[in-house]
Automatic annotation (TrEMBL), chain A:
It comes from marine sediment metagenome. The lineage of its organism: unclassified sequences, metagenomes, ecological metagenomes. It is found in: Cell membrane. GO terms for cellular component: plasma membrane. Keywords: Cell membrane, Membrane, Transmembrane, Transmembrane helix. This is Na+/H+ antiporter subunit C. It is a multi-pass membrane protein.
UniProtKB/TrEMBL annotation, chain B:
It is a multi-pass membrane protein. It comes from marine sediment metagenome. GO terms for molecular function: antiporter activity. This is NADH:quinone oxidoreductase/Mrp antiporter membrane subunit domain-containing protein. It holds the Pfam family Proton_antipo_N. Residues 688-771 form the MrpA C-terminal/MbhE domain. InterPro entries: CPA3_Na-H_Antiporter_A (IPR050616), MnhB (IPR007182), MrpA_C/MbhD (IPR025383), MrpA_C/MbhE (IPR046806), ND/Mrp_TM (IPR001750), Proton_antipo_N (IPR001516). Keywords: Antiport, Cell membrane, Ion transport, Membrane, Transmembrane, Transmembrane helix, Transport. It is found in: Cell membrane. Residues 613-678 form the MrpA C-terminal/MbhD domain. Coiled coil: none annotated. Signal peptide: none annotated. Its main location: membrane.
Amino acid sequence: MELLFSLVTGVLSASGIYLLLRGRTFSIIVGLVLLSYAVNLFLFSTGGLHTHSAAVIGESAIPADPLPQALVLTAIVIGFAMTAFIVILAIRTRAELGNDHVDGKQGEEGDTR
Amino acid sequence: MSLLWIPLLTLAGTLVPLFTASRGRVICTTATIIAPLAALSIVLSHLPTLLSGEVVTQHWNWMPLLGLDLALRLDGLTLLFALLILGIGSQIITYAGYYLASDEKDGRFFSFMMLFMTAMLGIVMADNLLLMWLFWELTSVASFLLIGFWGHLSDARRGARMALTVTGAGGLALLAGILLIGNEVGSFAMSDVLVAGDQLRAAPHYPLIMALVLLGAFTKSAQFPFHFWLPHAMAAPTPVSAYLHSATMVKAGIFLLARLHPALGDTSLWAVSLTLAGLATLVYGAWFALLERDLKGILAFSTVSHLGLIVLLLGLDTPLSIVAALFHILNHALFKATLFMSVGIIDHETGTRDIRRLGGLWSLMPITGTLTLMAGAAMAGFPPFNGFLSKEMLLTKALATELFGGLGSIIPLLVLLGATLSVAYSLRLVHGVFFAKSIDNSPAEQVLHPHDPPKGMYLPGLVLAFLCLLVGLLPMTLAAPLINSASLAVQGVNNPVFTFALWHGLNLPLMMSITAIAGGALLLREHKRLGLLANILPSQNAKVVFEKLITRIVKAALWVTLRLENGSLQRYQALLLLSALAMTALGLSNVSSLTGSAGIQPIDGLVILGAAVMMLGAIGSALAHRWRLVSLLMLSVVGLTVSLTFIRFSAPDLALTQLSVEVASMILMILALFFLPQRPPLWVSSRRIMRDVLLAGSLGLIIASLNYALLTREVASISDFFLAESVPGGGGTNVVNVILVDFRGFDTLGEITVLTLAGLATYKLLNRLRLFKPSGNVEGIRWSRHRYPLILDVVAQIILPIALLVSFYIFLRGHNQPGGGFIAGLITAIALLLQYIARGYEWTSQRLKVSFPFISVLGLAIAVSTGLGSWLFGYPFLTSSFGYFDIPLIGKIELATAMLFDLGVYLAVVGATLMILVNLGSVTTAHRPTLQTTEQSASKEGSK
């Protein structure tokens, strides 16, 4: 189980990083979201992987570690704020510069519009 | 009176000239001088205590963890310097009031002077090495501003830059030395460092520490080979030179040597380094002073030479030579400040500082002539002036030294050479300006009719010149107590008993003095031949060498910068990731075994399926990145599976949050696709792809290994506290929610602030957006005519009340069951968003007339005021309270202030989410291509 879980975080972050290294804004956004999934899973897993033990008093005999959960919950929401911001930033950049390359210029990849 | 007032007064004094500058020169000068005089009187009020050898210290904690304290001390050494800084400083401010032209920015000038004065006081008063260093750097900055005061002259700019570069670089070396000292001693407090001399001298790093400290001192005090900045600093207005390059700034290095003498001195390494540097500087400076034609240049090189003399005296390192060094600090400051001021007067009156064009001014300017003569005699070391006394002491000490063993006689010989040259250039200065005939008599001089300046301009110089004479005549009364207490501060128990006297009998030093005077006179007569000799000797213009060096450094820096920073974000990311990879790999290689001691749980089929879906989705979205929509859909698969993962591993709150955020961000990103290019970008080179795959793959491997190592180890958690206190302390059974709104409420407050700010920022970014307006897809097919599908419309309307009810329920139960403000807020936002999607922006906003920024800010305000409310009851910010209430018909329910806080969270989330998404959506509506506006109005009609 542990091996599989860490494999997932590894693959998610590798894909995210690969996308981060692309030259178009949208790939970067997707990459960042993927990377944030991976980071959230990683952070969440620091509390250990428990089954049927939600951190609600009285519901489960041995409640899971609630602290990483609280941290990740805020991380998810902040991640949304960040995604929203860069999405709008990407749109604005496209509108101002006429292309969606991260350097704001026609890269070697060419541009269609 | 608190010691802090001394630097505070001068610091406040930096503002005074700025406010009084408009009132005219006289008022500005008078007002400026008040602060130094007041500070001087505070120093003088401590005089009796200090002369008796006591030390006054005051101490405030500043950053105790860094060892940086606001600690001030006043001892004999500080007293000597403080008197010079404040006493000569106030004389020079008076002088500058007359020196500066009427249209000059005097407010700024005086303000810089006061800033410099504050910095110097800080150096000499600091009782903490780091604090001292701070002021040390401040003097570099202030002197940069002062030297470059006439910024329209390129010489001034160059001189200022050179001084800043050299002294700034030295300052960095000094910082390194100080850090090493602090590391060795365990404290930066002066009192600790000064008594740790034995420990420091025995330390393995001692040579390095000493070299770094000396580098700082030598650059500041213009010791060979770092002397070259000082002559170029003469581009400054003359009052600046008189202040910075006679009494203060260049003495800072010497102060440092004296101050740290108990900690670092008394080793042969120290003595040899100082002696060699001092000797070289002494002779070198004196030789060039003799050749110089510019009056200020003569003084600059002579200052270099005299600084060398002081360093040499400190290097001889006997109790009496240190006394002589301290004495010469005082003497040099007195006569050099006078000379600079009189050179300023001559420049002012004749319009030139070239000694070849000057001459015969004695009859025209008798007062200026008198004070120049007096100070010049002191500089040459003629009796009965103060310079004679310290020079005799130097000659005595040079004869007595045993430093170089058999080669020891070289020291007195070189000192004699220096003294002879010193007599020669002093004579040349006085003779050339006042008595000799001008070699090149320009007509301009006849027009100007030079005469003695107004009183205010020559009085400061005259005061100092008479002090030179008085100290020479009455050394035991005027100077000895001061020097004694300064020496006591430097040498402690080794402090010798000494007497200053003009007449020591007919001895060897006196003979040498007479030889020097005779030799100096001879050199002056043969000055023309000296010039020929100088032409034969190789000479390098320091400025050219320095500028070349700087150009080379700039070029090298540019080269490196262009390599690293080529304007490509991808390059930066790759570099950053590469260094992250290197560092984590290094850390991971120190772990002995990846698998930890905790057991491994078995795998079940469902988990394998989920993992496979996530990995395939992630890889798929990376592979399909050129087709944006496909990539996005793959991403959403991963996101949904992540929320399932949270459910599987007992985190229902996370699952709910992830699920609702997923919906909101997918809507957002699909909207964004409308504005981004539709065609896939071209392929890039396979080399680039290989590089990125390799980089991403290895980082992924590292992250997976880290995660695995972490998961298989027992981790001690601080969560037991939260689990135990959740019900009794927070009044809720859902620990995650209680942490969010209660234990860590402050974090949550910060987070919803960020959320609101992000919303407001996007609001701003979308303002006046010029958009590309695709009227159809890539193939040229127009967008669908049915913009608002009927089924979606109907479903959305049915769902809205249910969704609102659900979100209300989730909000209410959040404290005890999975749920809470975040999740409820997202559900509400999505339910409302669905209306916008189904019926369009105009239709919905006509019916939902609320301002989302307002809701978001309102939520923030509720959260903050809930926190502030606890202040009313005398509790810290965000303290929560709760109670159980019996309400008729409903029964017993629990109400907590945390719930009010959660309401704030709810509103902030709803407001921010809708602010972002609805705004983006509204932009698409406003910018619809004109072709479709008819449809739009038609559909609007239809919907009514």
